[in-house]
């Protein structure tokens, strides 16, 4: 049994430098970020439209932006899954993550920690 002290370095499995992100993984990460960002803008617009009922222009703008970014996210996910050789469950999770709001961010963080965004797996 090993005792872990406070000032011991973290185990190698916790180090993110072991899995440097590939260029395709970086494209996936940025697309996941923008997909979540447009989701947040769309949610803000829906709140403005139905809450205080001040404007519909935010829904108009972010609805269109989110539609374009959603389609780009699906395309980038398929390309990343093929290039980075993701298992089928990772591809399915990445595609399903685009449906509920803001789920692409934690998924991307989890993929990064697991090494799914690196070229060397």
TrEMBL record:
Subcellular location: Cell membrane
Record's bilayer topology term: Multi-pass membrane protein
GO CC terms in record: plasma membrane
Family annotation (InterPro entries): DUF3817_TM
Domain DUF3817, chain residue ranges per copy: 26-113
Coiled-coil spans in chain: none
Protein name, as recorded: DUF3817 domain-containing protein
Organism: Stenotrophomonas lacuserhaii
